[in-house]
Design a protein that fits this description.
mainly alpha
Length: about 60
């Protein structure tokens, strides 16, 4: 394993929590100066629940080890 972490958006799409379009919309919100993390933007947009973000972050951490 290379130790390279998958992006949280990739993980959420692979888990079918969100669509690519929803990820893009959240990224746009990030770029408009919110300064928030992608998971926070997805939560604010109502696309995911907190447990979805937590699970995706846990997977990301495991894959990065």
């Amino acid at each position: 394993m290379t130790g390279k972490k998958k992006l949280i958006g990739e993980i959420m799409v692979s888990l079918n929590y969100v669509s690519v379009e929803q990820i893009n919309e959240a990224r746009l919100a990030q770029m408009q100066g919110s300064g928030k993390k992608l998971g926070e933007c997805l939560l604010e947009l109502g696309y995911v629940r907190p447990e979805h973000v937590e699970q995706a972050l846990a997977i990301q951490q495991m894959e990065g080890e």
